[in-house]
Amino acid sequence: MFWLILSITTNTLLLLILKAFPSFRVNTLQGIVVNYFTAGSLGFLLSQNPLSFTELFHQNWSWVPPIMGLLFISIFLLLAKTAQTIGVSVATIANKMSLVIPSSIAVIFYHEHLVVLQYIGLFLALIAVVLSSLPPGKSDIPLRHHLFLPAIVFIGSGAIDALVNHAKKLPIADDQLPVFISSCFFVAFICGTLFISFRVTTGKDKLEWKSIPAGIILGIPNYFSIYGITRALGCNLMKSSALYPVNNMGIVALSAISA
């Protein structure tokens, strides 16, 4: 239960920090990239069984970090874009209602079973994403944008959760878990650094030093948000098809109360 509570708490803190970025005029992209370096470094510092660079490629989970790293940076940026153009509530619902994807994959591929009420809940989660994405009245933003951005965030977030669940079933030893998570974050950091370098060299952006402390603050809960849910999956507290709904709805509820 501790790991589940840690996941819910740190994910909520993550959303609140991201929401505060514009108020402090923090460059969102640069803050997110620094955050990934911080989270990656934290995992290696906490690792009790550090692996050499060559050993990383011989692990049965070595194919997961490149995919997850790309998804991390892509979905984080799309999540910020959705929040800024459509609304924070829409972004949060699209992000956390993605529990439909890992829960469905757990039923199809891992042969977990759901009761009728759980199937109804997953269906209602899909409806919630669609209805929350629709503009309440006339909007300057085209309807396709209202639907497209939340849909991509929904699919991408669900893919990340499904990959985390699958990686835990490979399995990953507890003493290698920090290294696994750090590897994912460092891939995201490298991708983000390349993107920032391109924008800076082409004159579309400039480096802002206040992004460094902001990214460090963001990176600490970001690491523990992934570490918490991964450890919760390995504790057999409940089936993953039930754990993700409890985790994500807990984040939505705590985020609403905290905000």
Describe it for me?
The protein has 11 helices and no strands. It is mainly alpha-helical. The protein starts with a helix and ends with a helix. The mean pLDDT is 83.
Question: Could you name the key traits of this structure?
Answer:
259 residues, single chain, mainly alpha
Topology of helices and strands:
Elements: H1 2-20, H2 28-46, H3 53-56, H4 64-85, H5 88-96, H6 100-109, H7 116-133, H8 143-168, H9 177-201, H10 211-234, H11 240-258
Helix pairs in contact: 1-10, 1-11, 2-4, 2-9, 2-10, 4-5, 4-8, 4-9, 5-7, 5-8, 6-8, 6-11, 9-10
Task: Spell the H/E element sequence.
Answer: HHHHHHHHHHH
| Proportion of residues in helical segments | over 70%
Structural class: mainly alpha
* Average residue pLDDT: 83
Whole-number radius of gyration?
A: 18 Å
Q: Show unreliable segments.
A: none
Instruction: List how many beta strands DSSP finds.
Output: 0
Profile the largest sheet.
none
Give the number of helices. Answer: 11
Shape: globular
Q: How big a fraction of the residues is strand?
A: under 5%
Measure the end-to-end span. 24 Å
Summarize, please.
This protein is mainly α and about 260 residues long. The longest helix has 26 residues, at about 145-170. It has 11 helices and no strands.
